[in-house]
Amino acid sequence: MSFQAPLFLLALVLVPAAAALYVRADRRRKADAARFASPILMPAVAPQRPGARRHLPLMLYGAALAAVALALARPEATVAVPEERAAVMLATDTSGSMAARDVSPSRMTAVRRAALRLLDDAPKELRVGVLAFNHAVREIEPPGADRRDARALVERLRPSGGTATGDGLAAAVELLKRQRANDAKRPPVAVILLSDGASTHGRDPIAAAREAARARIPVYTVALGTDSGTIEVDRPDGTTVTRSVPPDRDTMRRIATISGARSFSADAGEQLGEVYKRLGSQVATRKEQREVTAAFAAGAGALLLAGGAMSLRWFGRLP
């Protein structure tokens, strides 16, 4: 929190000063009461004493005074506000390694579920597109307000072929560049790139990341799977071999760093869903300083009313 008029914060010293004066007056009152009657006779003289509750109204007044001082300083808070026409491309690896079952029930199923959840839960201001790639770019659905076509594409995702991470990333970046060029407001855009293995086809993904950086398009990366992930591969001679398919975390981390974004790892479907949810909200909002003076002023008024109500109910007067 910051303040537009911080000099008014000096008024906060009035709170401890008022508390010190109150304590001094209370001690003087007790001394006067002791001169009027001895402590032994006090229960007979004043059988109904308010006890500690007599301090509560003045404590609320002190809190109200602090709230007024803060309100005069014109406080500002950083809040998340909707970012109109923000767009994100969900670039998803659909290579054969996505059939691995180290992520329950399988990597591909976890991706479909998380992507559908993103489409359902992302802020309505966010336009979401989907791109599927294996050893080549297979399908593209540009970002749009209507997400039905994107949902249909996600539901069709099936694992097969190799991995062309660079080609998939380059296609997503190029699509966002064109969309942003056609929008006079130049809204924020981003790519969420998910892959579960090393690139085996097409262009270098690091070169594609540098192109994203030049276009100022952040690429948030998600490395899916565990180091123990395996798939069964049929050989031409009819035999089957088990192939290890660990995620390429280093490359995904470099892509995110080069483009000015963050990298995540997910070895469970629930983790992937949380990552997508967090990134969807992040791209769809921006941080903005908002003055919250009214909130502090309202709080001061409420505290004054509460203190006055307590004093009238308990003592029949205002302090």
Topology:
Blueprint: E1 2-3, H1 14-36, H2 42-45, H3 56-72, E2 75-82, E3 87-93, H4 107-121, E4 127-133, E5 137-144, H5 148-155, H6 165-181, E6 189-195, H7 205-214, E7 219-224, E8 230-234, E9 240-244, H8 249-259, E10 263-266, H9 269-284, E11 285-291, H10 293-315
Parallel strand pairs: 3-4, 3-6, 6-7, 7-10
Antiparallel strand pairs: 1-2, 2-11, 4-5, 8-9
Tell me, rounded to a whole number, the average pLDDT: 81
| Oligomer category | single chain
How many angstroms does the end-to-end distance come to? 34 Å
CATH class of the largest domain: Alpha Beta
Order of helices and strands: EHHHEEHEEHHEHEEEHEHEH
Task: Enumerate how many helices there are, as a single number.
Answer: 10
Largest sheet: 6 strands, mixed
Annotated CATH topology of the largest domain: Rossmann fold
Give an overview in words:
This protein has helices at 14-36, 42-45, 56-72, 107-121, 148-155, 165-181, 205-214, 249-259, 269-284, 293-315, and strands at residues 2-3, 75-82, 87-93, 127-133, 137-144, 189-195, 219-224, 230-234, 240-244, 263-266, 285-291. It has 319 residues and is of the alpha/beta class. A six-stranded mixed beta sheet has the order 5-4-3-6-7-10, sandwiched between helices. Strands 1-2-11 form a three-stranded antiparallel beta sheet.
